[in-house]
Structure formats: structure tokens, C-alpha cells
Amino acid sequence: MRFAALFLSIPAFAADSFEALGTEIRRQLTESGAASLSVALARDGKIVWEEGFGWADKAARRRATAHTMYSLASISKPITATGLMRLVESGRVKLDAPVDEYLGAAKIRGRAFDASQATVRRIANHSSGLPLHYQFFYEDEPYRRPSMDDTILRYANLVTAPGERYQYSNLGYGILDSVVSRVSGKPYADYMREQVFEPLGLTHTSVNVPAELAGHQAVRYDPTGAPIPFYDFDHPGGSAVYSSAHDLVRFGMFHLGEKLEDQRAILSAASLEEMRKPTMMTGPKAWYGVGWAIADGPGGYRVISHTGSMGGVATSLRLIPSERIALAVLCNSGVALPHRVADRILARVPPKWKEPAPGMAPVAAPKFEPAPDLQGVWRGSVSTYKRDLPLRLEFRSDGLVRARLGDQLETLVNTPAFRDGMFTGRINGDLGTEDVNRRPYTIQLSLTLRGAALNGSASALSNPGRRAGNALSHWVEARKE
What secondary structure, in 3-state letters, does 212-271 show? Predict the structure, then answer.
């Protein structure tokens, strides 16, 4: 499709504007080492530019196009949330009901908190208290994805009070896809195909890649440029959707209220607005709703968006409702290129949009000086699905923090910090479960000071490698001696 034809509906733009962008994208693909990138831009209810660059499959010499299916990673979340909202509209799910009402025998464990306050909405906006979580299963390894009930029993512990903090949790969206399946009576992938993808005419969108679409997907590549074996996860609702730039921008147009002729209105305007309602603050001028990130962006534009990132994946979907703009940029390498390209495209479209300034150099963290309430010795345990491991923490007045896990050697806590009532730091140790010991890891402590108690999570974070590792979080509680 030629650029000149695409620009007839936008007379304010020169046709060579995106020609130049295409040239720049090709250059940056080479410089970044990324395999391919696909882009689609819509404005005023029409797709005005879509194109693929580079290789969807280097070995097969298959070029990327606007219809190549990319692994979306976390852009799966607003898509799953769209399927969930169909059940909300029909009255089969209530956003402000406890999510446990829609689960089976495996329920969320409140620990020190009230699990009934972990509502569907709080799961969807990452404020339920569920922890950091991701777990990958590669086809060339012997580990296989457990049932969702097993994952819930092992890891669905509330590590903060519901509604207290924003904590991005893939586990929550794994629970939501289980809710979708249980309430609808259909497998998550089938429900999404029948209730979301087909009605919206998304012919190159699916949960994972079924046989009939095999050969349309972009191969995921690691930082060396080698193909990554196919992998699954125990949170498909948060990570498992594939889509093309063409389909994804059409999905974005539907959420802008720009329903196309071949699409059915699967949600009312009120439901679309409910999803975009900012219900949990995530940072300055930034919030999360039901599946969507919401922010006041450059030029004062309200931006509805989501990004995705995991092994061999970097994706961006941005909507600017006031300008009727939807933009999808997808890549099959884990690089920052899609986000830079999205910024560069938007700098040429909305009149007041400005590209973000280069990030400032990181500032060294101040020396950790524990408050008197923290100083001293705390004893408690880390609760894994295998057993409770004794934990001893010693906070010295000079800022040194020591930890001892079970009968293991005492270790220093690295990068200690205390902000907004939460202590964080990293230790070495062995949590002693088969799940965490699949890969080398360090343990991230995230503990909230609550009077005489210090509680939260100990997350086993896989060390960096060519493949995406895991983040598996466990309940921690300690009390001061």
C-alpha cells in the first residue's frame, strides 16, 4: 500500500512524512539488532498508515507485514479485560464483588488482610494486594504449566492490603482469565475468539497461535538474535495474546468508539468508559483502570495505552481519544525501539504532542539510615508452598542490614531502602522449592512496616539471561524482638 494514497484523508500531513519515518525505522532496526517491526496508525475512524519492516522469520526469509501476528505480552491485559466486561455487561460478573466468588476450590489467601476486599476491579487495576509474578515454561524444557488452581494455591497471597498500593501483577490477570473461563463455561481461548476476536473482525488475533494461523506469527528473538523456543505461562490472560498491527489498531479504534462496518458493538459506550476510568494511581498524572493505563501525556492529551515486554517481545498500543488516534507498534525483539517509534510518529500527528526529553542520568540512592522503629532484630518466616522458612533480619543504626534464612549463612541485604512505609532490599538465599530452583535467582524483599509487624513478600527473581526468567513471590511476616 503506497503512502500517497494513505494520506488523502489527512491533508495537513505531507505524504513524505511517513516515508521518512519508514527510512528511519529501517535504519534503527539495523542499529538495534531487532528482527522486525510492524506499525499501524488510525485517525478519525480510518487506518491511515500500516506497514511492516524487517523479518518476521529470519530463517524462512519471511518479511514482516501489517498482518504479521506478534506476541503482545501485556497488551493482552486490555484484551482480556474486554472479554471480562462482556460478562460484566450481562450481569454474570460484578466488578466490585470479591474475585473469590468466581473461583473454584482454590481461593486467594488474605494472610494479614481481608481477601473479600480483593475485588474483580482491584484485580483488574493491580491494587488487590497480589504480588509481583511471572512464570515461563519453554517447550524445550521439561517444566510444564501447572493448573491455575495450583498456581493460586502456591502464589495467590495478598502481600499488601487491597486498595493500599499499586502492584503490577500478571498473576491477577491469570486469575481473571480463569474467571472468564469458569463463568462462561468455555476455555479462555475459545471464549475470547467467539466473544471478542470474531465479532470485532480480528482475523489475525488469537490466544497463542492455533494451527490454522501457524506461519503467520513473528518468531521471538533473544538479545543475540537467536530464535527463542515457544514458551507458555501460568498467566495467559496477562500475556498470551498474539495479534497483528492491523488488528490491534482496529481493536484500539473500537475502544475509541470508532466501530467499523464489519464489527459488532460487543460493549456499550458506558462499559468502554468504565474501562478507561482511572481508579488506581500509578504515578504522577498516571493511573490504571480496567485493563488500561491512563496518563496525562505530552501537550496535555489524555492517553489510554498499554505496553508489553518479555523475552523477544516489545509492544505499544496508544489511544488519544480527543484526537481520535490509535497507534500500534509491535516488535519481535526485546528492545526499546517500538516506544521510540511511537513517540516519533505521534510527534507528527497531534498538534501539541512533544517527544519526551531524553531521560536524566540515574541519581545515586541516598545512604540507607533506618528509622528507630526499624532498628533492631526482627524474627519471622517466609512461607513457601513447601514449608515455612525462619527469617531473621537485623537493622543496624549505621544502615547495615543482615539477613539469615533458615539455617543458611547470614548475608548482607543489598540496596536497602525505605520509602512510603515499605522496606526493600535483595538477599542471596535458597527458598527450597522446585519452582524457584529452575533458574539461579536473588530474593527481593518488599516489606511494609505496620507497627510491631513487618510483612509483605520475598520474590525469587531469576538472574538476567538470554531467556526470560521468573518472579515468584512468597508471604513474609516478622516481628521485632
Answer: HHCCCECCCECCCCCECCCEEECCHHHHCEEECHHHHHHHHHHHCCCCCCCCCCCCCHHH
Q: What is the pLDDT of residue 212?
A: 82
State the number of CA atoms in the 13 A half-sphere of 15 facing the CB: 9
Dig out the grid coordinates for 299 from the structure: 501537550
**Pairing, β 36-43 against β 46-57:** antiparallel
Distances (CA, A) of 460 to 11, 384, 474: 54, 11, 8
Map grid coordinates 519452582 to a residue.
435
Q: Which of 3.40.710.10, 3.40.50.80, 1.20.1560.10, 1.10.260.40 would CATH assign to domain 71-346?
A: 3.40.710.10
411: left (phi over 0), alpha (psi -120 to 50) or beta: beta
Comparing CA positions, the residue from 77, 115, 80 lying closest to residue 98 is 115
Whose cell is 468504565? That residue is 274
Alpha-carbon distance 228 to 223, whole Å?
10
The pLDDT value given to residue 464 = 86
User: Which positions of the chain have pLDDT values less than 50?
Assistant: 1-14
Measured in whole angstroms, how far is the alpha carbon of residue 28 from the centre of its chain? 25
Helix (H) or strand (E) holding 193: none
**pLDDT value at residue 19:** 86
pLDDT, position 355:
74
| CATH code given to domain 376-480 | 2.40.128
Is there a contact between 150 and 113 (Cβ–Cβ < 8 Å)? no
Handedness of CA 183, 187, 189, 192 (dihedral sign): negative
Task: Give the residue extent of every domain in the chain.
Answer: 71-346, 376-480
Are the beta carbons of 235 and 133 closer than 8 angstroms? yes
